[in-house]
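Reading a protein record of the kind used here takes little practice once its layout is understood. The fold follows as a row of integers, each naming the local backbone shape at the matching residue. With these conventions in mind, the following record can be read line by line:

_____
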Amino acid sequence: MSLTILLGLFTSIIFFVLAKKRLSLAVLWLAFLLPLDNRIYFSWGFDQGSPARFALLGIFGCLFFSCIRAGVKLPKWKEPVFKDVFLQILVFVWVIRLISFSVSLDLASSISYQVFFSEVVLVYILLKKCVEEEGRVFILKFFRNYILAGFLVSLYSPYQYYMYKFKDKILPGVWPLENRPVRIGSLFWDINHYGAYLSTVIPFIPYFFVRAKTAKGRVFYFLAFLICIASFGMTLSRSAIIGLSAAFLLYLILLSFKGYFKQSAIVLAAVLILVMGIIYAGDRAGLKLSYQLQKRFLSINFSYRVWDDSINAHSALAYGSWQIMEKNPILGGGYGSFNKQFRTTEISKTYFDLDPVKDAVIPPHSVWFEPLSATGLLGSAPFYIFFTLIWYFLFAKYRKAKQLSDILLTLGFISGLLAVSLSGVFYSYNMEFFYVFVFFALLYGAYKVKEPPLKLKDILALTFIVVLAGSFIFYKLDANTLIDWDEAIYAKIAKNILNGVGDPFNFVWQISKGSWFEKPPLFIWLTSLSFQLFGVNEFAARFISALSGVGSTIALYFFGKRLFKKSFLAPVLSAIVLATSVHYIFQSRNGTTDVLTSFFILCAMYTFWIARKEGKRWWLLGLFLGLTTLTKGPVAVIPVISLTVYVLSDLFLYKEKRYKIRDFFEVLAAFLIVSLPWHLVEYVRFGKDFIDSYVFYHIFERGRGIEGHSNSFWWYVIVIKVWFRHWFVVAIPALLLAVLGGFFGKAERFKKYFEEEAASLLFLVIWVIVTFFVLSVSVSKIQWYIIPIYPPLALIVGWFLSRVLTVRKWPKAVLYSGVLGVVAASSFLVYYWKDMWMLEDYNRGLKDVGQMIAENRDRYEFIPRTVPVYIYNIPSSSALFYTLRYAKVAGKADIYEMMKSTDGKAFMAITNKGSFESLKKEYVNPRVIIYAESKGFVLFGKDWKDVREQFNQQPYGTPLEIYDPYYFCEWVKFGTNTLCD
């Protein structure tokens, strides 16, 4: 038996004895073992056999024998622990992960991961028991040790740097990089994990500094803060620095909201001075810190990605997680099977080109995407609900905190959780420190909370809804190329922002046409972020819309619970109706603004209903009205008019007196704060051009019917009939009954049938009618404009179905069988009509041709970068997106000038097969040849081999390596029209 495994067993025995003496004592000492992660030092007996795991083995062994001694009866603390909804969620996730073994490609790895997650569940039980027995004092004791442990491991970082710099010795945890500063990871195996660990330590130091009773205590915590910050900086972990920076800003903002604005400003100034001082001192010492840091963190900028394989590799891993999930949206690719499942994805080729480690095991690289790839929507939905509830409890605790110490402790948990949540986008922390911190955040936030906001049945219902909606919406989301026009235009503008063509406040679609003012910015901003995360591809272009579609079903469930308080079925059925609505599925799979707009309108109506009942938080209504305006401008009149009509009805029909003038001004203030700044910036920057295009043309003129989109007033009835499909049949009697209940529900004749639901039904009926009439009054009509009507229709249909199913008292088994029957029948019909929501791949050939151009983009003999590829007689939106270089739209006269003689201008152009054949017949020129052809699209032109030598020379003086050559011409010369035209 090796010495290391003996050391591990000795650790287990020690913690067994500590746990037997007092369970909480063992957990307190566990804090010192959590950061001992480096596998060279701490793989005791087997791979990743860390000291913390041996310690937990001893603690769990003590618990097990305690149960045996009690006669196989669980101790007295079983009530608060095993009836805990959070433990129920964890067990549910554990079961789903076990079931996912059925689709795993690596059973041994799946078992290993399952053993770890079993440990995680037991850790929660352990911590829950300790908090139940000793209360908040135990949490404070643990985090005092947690900070001390972080301080001690931070002291090792300077020693590692000293040995590297002055003794020329690379210790474990040190990562030297060519032409970059060395990275230091202390006692962690992965330096980025060490950065994440410290980001959960640092936010708690201010609390203990303030609470310290002696000057020595304050000096210690001040030094601990400085040393931990210095050690954190030595990691140079981009993910951890992004996380902690955001956490620091949130910390100060929330502290300011509690009345400590002056102190927050001083702290911010002090930290900025400290950071700048360290960088300045480093530069003076010859370390060139400012240049090296700029070079490292500039890689986060999308335009520089061509030189940073690490950033691109992480995008490929994130995208790969979704590609695994898309194959099996319900159950994913199997827990622990990421390494082998990822190799089956299309994006894996790109990843291994960036990071040639085909023989290495590829672990999942995201806290948030790992559940999707491993267990699909069925396992990820409860996992996300678990974390959402933690945020809910922490912010509830923050709102109630009055004393400075309570505020600082709560902010420690909030900012620490935000830090690891953000860095967890890029890394998966299958480590004890992560789950211990997360569980303490939960136990602190939920301490002495009697009733959680969600019960197990709510969590199961939400999981079912997410699986149902997500299975349709995310199914092969990236299988088809982008659709002309809107989807491709928004994607191109979002891509341009990332590549420096225009900016977030100056949208550019085509360089030759200048600024683009057709839509407000929010959807395009979010799409740019999606591109930043997943890379520029069809999935990322549609991700925001798809997420909004699934989010709408979740919001609808919660709204239904508020509207129909006594019915569990009504909200569930409402969400099912929306999740199986063909039109909503189709538009959710399309990268356009409509579903995001519908989601914000739904949230606005929901927050109004909450504010109406509770008389507070009216600002949330203004927030969502502002977001609606920033997504699709004038469509915000739908909720505004709907709510105005309802409030008037409430006042005069039901004699309600709950509305106050100050509530209106609270809504208005929030609305203006959100929506006004962008409009002011655009007006100040572009003046009359912005007003003429955005306001007069794209609002007023579009409303009067332009671009061939005019239809009759009742046209949307036909659209709903065609696209609402099977639910349209149910919607007719449902609407009639809702009108009866809404307008006459409190009359004596109908009181016993509708009294409790009358106000809710009136609200929904007004919402539907106003939405229909506002959109129908506009002469300009397109079928997807009607999307905002589906959420209120779904609520009415869901309510109607619940009334039908409960018209008599059925046994629960019969009732739920009826619900499942509705789901099965509706899902079958949606799948049967798949051609309606999953369109043909119209532009695949165009993408193939564009890829061919991209592969030759650096060959000057093929075509100089300064010369455009022309787009002729095809929709320019997709062509501009897929032509991965400078491109221009050309008319027939332009093409004629280039084709008419053998001595004329050399060129290259894309068109469809039919147009090319016509051109060849009309303008015969033997030098015009086809370079590439795919699925009806042709890349043709004059052979560049005969072009003058000067075209092969680099026509600009800036060194190529500074810029991304991929987009150089567009980026550098936008607005000058000197090089690219």
About this structure: Residues 136-300+401-445 form one domain. The chain has four domains: 3-133, 136-300+401-445, 456-484+517-837, 844-973. The longest helix spans residues 136-166.
